[in-house]
Amino acid sequence: MVDFTLTDEQKALREMAHDFAAKEIRPVAWEYDRDGTWPEDVLRKAWELGLMNTHTPEEYGGPGASYLDGTLIEEELSWGCSGIATSISANGLASAPLALGGSEELKKRYLSMLTEDFKLASFCLTEPDAGSDVSGMRTTATRKGDKYVINGSKCFITNGGYADWYTVYAKTDKDAGHRGISCFLVPRDDTVSVDKKEDKMGQRASNTATITFNETEIPAGHLIGEENKGFKIAMMTLDRTRPGVAAMATGIARAAFEFATNYSKERVQFGVPIAMHQAIQFMIADMATKVHLSRLATWNSAVLLDQGRRNTIESSHAKRFAADAAMEVTTDAVQVYGGYGFIKDYPVEKLMRDAKIMQLYEGTSQIQRLVIARETLLPRRVDEPAAAVAAG
Ligand code: CAA
Asked: How crowded is the C-beta side of 291, counted as CA atoms within 13 Å?
């Protein structure tokens, strides 16, 4: 049976996240955006309330929330500010590969570290010359006795400047393309440097840094999953986190839709509120439809994960549709505000800037279409170990 009714617990969770967004995020969002301030105070409060590390299983101190629960939280936080929401959710992206393929010892130590204290972790996949084309990465991990030595630079790393540990993808066989990539847990030490904090168009409250590993030594037991199987772990991770990005895009679109709707009822032109003009009504109607469908696609992609099913195509549908919808809805919201929409004193120009990253990070809208086309034209069976699906 298809039923979109949330349980009382889910409604309460959504309300709690909304309350947090309204009281702790919205009031500072525009100021943090202007100054590019990293919102440590908000993150600490989110951590205390249990809004960080939401998918971490109870045995490692987390709430073990479902993927659907996660999307409910992420939409609300992003409604407050998607830059702050990205900072809050980055631990989830970094932890997913560990939950999927890490040894029990590694999970116990590093997942628990994030729930016992306010600590951060970052996901390090992208490199200057390897964005969409993951297999083009140049970072290497060389086995030396009972250690691996990591060398290379990763860019666009969320919370990178503040992370206590990193999940790092590196080549363990340079000539084997995607079959030569492995995934590692790398604690931060003196050999890890933060080279650059990006000055961004949007999501200015989130920290985005370049991280360099310079002869960084880690124990061999910090390998996540099997050697040369890291690419699959990366793809399985993104299947699990793209619904969260779709939820964040829905939150941005919803915020823009609400601002535009309220403004259209107040702004008078030609003697009537502009909401009385059909040209505006149709824009509002299209916004409402896009927010609604973004949420449905997001929930669908999350529920499949909760059922232990592979969601690759649904995850890409949701991420692609919600990201493009957020860009369209925020652009239309600026249009509804007219010239005022272009001015920083009004809220929607920030939302339009923030929306852009939704079409870029965790796989561009073009990469999502590539995944959808491949899954449609050449559906292939991907063997995911059942245990990994459950853990994810
Ligand atoms: N689950 C499991 N396995 C999968 C999979 C999935 N969803 N998708 C692919 N695979 C497997 C394939 O079955 C294949 O396996 P074999 O080795 O057994 O043949 C293997 O992986 C290679 O698959 P492809 O041939 O499809 O690989 P590709 O090189 O053509 O790349 C891609 C595919 C979709 C383009 C992929 O590289 C991709 O998703 N790129 C985008 C990367 C991305 O999203 N980066 C975002 C970084 S994170 C971020 O932005 C966050 C932040 O903090 C800012």
From this structure: 21
Q: Which two tokens stand for residue 246?
A: 């779709």
pLDDT at 348: 98
Return the best residue to mutate from 93, 134, 167, 374 for the ligand 1 pocket (most ligand atoms within 8 A of CB): 134
- Do residues 203 and 354 make contact, with C-beta atoms less than 8 angstroms apart? yes
Q: Tokens for 100? A: 């999927």
Is 362 labeled as catalytic in the residue annotation?
Answer: yes
Active-site hit among 75, 76, 314, 362: 362
Q: pLDDT means per 10 residues in the chain (392 residues)?
A: 92 98 98 96 98 98 97 98 98 98 98 98 97 97 98 98 98 97 98 95 98 98 98 98 98 99 98 98 98 98 97 98 99 98 98 98 98 92 50 40
pTM exceeds 0.90 for this model: yes
> How are beta strands 223-224 and 147-158 bridged, if at all?
unpaired
Please give the pLDDT value at position 384: 55
Q: Which atom of ligand 1 is nearest to the CA of 236?
A: 1
| Closest ligand 1 atom number to CA of residue 361 | 50
Residue 312 CA, closest ligand 1 atom number? 7
**Pick from 148, 143, 311, 185: which is nearest to 238 by CA?**
311
Q: Which residues line ligand 1 (CB under 6 A)?
A: 123, 125-126, 132, 134-135, 156, 158, 178-179, 231-232, 235-236, 238-239, 312, 361-363, 367, 370-371, 380, 382
Distance between CA atoms of 289 and 307, rounded to whole angstroms? 27
Report CA(238)–ligand 1 centroid distance (Å). Answer: 8
Q: Ligand 1 centre and the CA of 387: distance in Å? A: 20
- Structure token digits, residue 137: 């990465």
Rg (CA), the chain: 21
How many other C-beta atoms are found inside a 10 Å radius of the C-beta of residue 2? 5
CB atoms within 10 A of CB 38: 20
| Structure confidence at residue 382 (pLDDT) | 66
* Per-residue confidence (pLDDT) for residue 2, from 0 to 100: 84
The beta-strand segments (E) located in the chain are: 121-124, 140-144, 147-158, 165-171, 181-187, 192-197, 208-219, 223-224, 268-269, 272-273
User: Which atom of ligand 1 is nearest the CA belonging to 123?
Assistant: 53
